[in-house]
Amino acid sequence: MGNVPLTAAWQHEFVEYQDGAMGAEDLIDLVSIGVVLVGDDGIIRSINSRGQRLLKVTKEEVLGKRVDMLPLRTPLYKVLSENCREMPQELAVNGSLLLVRSTEVVLENGVSAELVEFRDVTEEKRERRQREEFVAMMAHDLKSPLTVMMGYIQAMKGEMLGKVDQSLQSCLEELDRNSYRLLGMIDDVLDAYRLEVGLVSVNQEFSDLQAVLASCCRDLAREAEIQGIQFSSVIKPDIPAVRVDRKQIIRVFSNLVGNAIKFTPRKGSVSLTAERRGETVAVTVADTGIGIPEADLHRVFNKYYRASSARGYKGTGLGLAISKAIVEAHRGTIEVESREGTGSRFTVILPAE
Predict the structure, then answer these.
(1) pTM of the model
(2) Are the C-beta atoms of 321 and 300 separated by less than 8 Å?
(3) What is d(CA 79, CA 268) in angstroms, rounded to the nearest whole number?
(4) pLDDT of 275-321, one tens digit each?
(5) pLDDT tens, position by position, 258-267
(6) What DSSP string runs through 271-328?
(7) Strand order across the beta sheet in which 333-339 lies
C-alpha cells in the first residue's frame, strides 16, 4: 500500500464549525471510530475520544510513548502491534470485537506516520449471526415437506407408473428434476452456515485423486453434451494419492465444472486439467464462457455474491464460498483468473502428501 498524503487533518489549522472555529483534530474526536496516529519513530502522536473509550485509556497515559514500551497485555498494544495494512483484522478487545485497519500516511511536513482505525463491530456481528441462524433454521425446516414431496414423486414415477397417464410423465420428470435442484439449494444454505460456525468437519484420508476427478468428469460430461458444450479432461498419471475428504472434494470439483458448464454458451468449451506441481497437485477448470468483470474478481468467493455478468442465471451465490472453505480446510488454495466475455480459469491447489 502506498503512502497516503494526510493534509490538514492532523495540523493546527482551523475550520469554521457552527458558531466558531474548531480545530481539525477536534473534528476527529467527533467521528464514531477510534483513531490513533503513530509516528515513524513508533511514538503515539494522537488518539481520539472514541479510541480512548474503546481501549479504556486516556491521552495523558499514552501520548508521547513508544508503542513497544507499552505493557504487552494492554488493549492499545494489542491493536497497534497487529499488522493490518494488507487486510483489516478482527480483534477481541475488552469483551468487544474490533475491526482494525492501518494506513501509512504522510503529514504535511513530509514525515511518515501510521494511521490506525478501529471500529466496534460486536453488535453488527451478533445481528449478522442471528440472521444466518434464522436462514439456516428456515432452510432446515423446508427440507421436511420437500422430502415428502420428493417421496411421492418417486412413487408416482415407479410403483404407480401404470396408474399415471402418459401425458403426465414429462411433468413428473420436471418435478423430479426441480425438486432435487431445490434440495441442492437448501443444502447450500445449510452448509454455508455450518462452515461459518465450524460445524462441518473434514475427514481426510488417502484417496486416489485421479479416480475422484475421473468420476466427476464422467458425471458432468453428459450435462455438457446436453448443453451443446465440448468437454475435455487431461488428468496426468503422476498425480499421487492425497489426503482429502472424498465427499467434500468431489463437491468442490463438481461445483467448479458445473458452474463452467452453466456459464458457457452452446458451442463453447470446458476443460479440466490436473497435474503435479512439486509438493502440490493443481487442478484447473477452464471455460470459454461469459467471464467475470475485473471489478468483481475479488468478491466472487463471498457468500451470496454474484458477479454482474451472472445476472439472469439461477443460483444461490454460495457454491464458490463453500468450495473455498472446503479447499482451505484441506490446507489448499483456490485461485481465479477471468476476463469478461472470454471465460474463466479456477485453479485448486492441494498439498501432496
Answers:
(1) 0.57
(2) no
(3) 51
(4) 998 889 999 999 999 998 888 888 888 877 777 666 666 666 778 88
(5) 889 989 999 9
(6) EEEEEEETTEEEEEEEE-SS---GGGGGGTTSTT---GGGTTS---S-HHHHHHHHHH
(7) 230-235, 269-277, 280-287, 343-351, 333-339
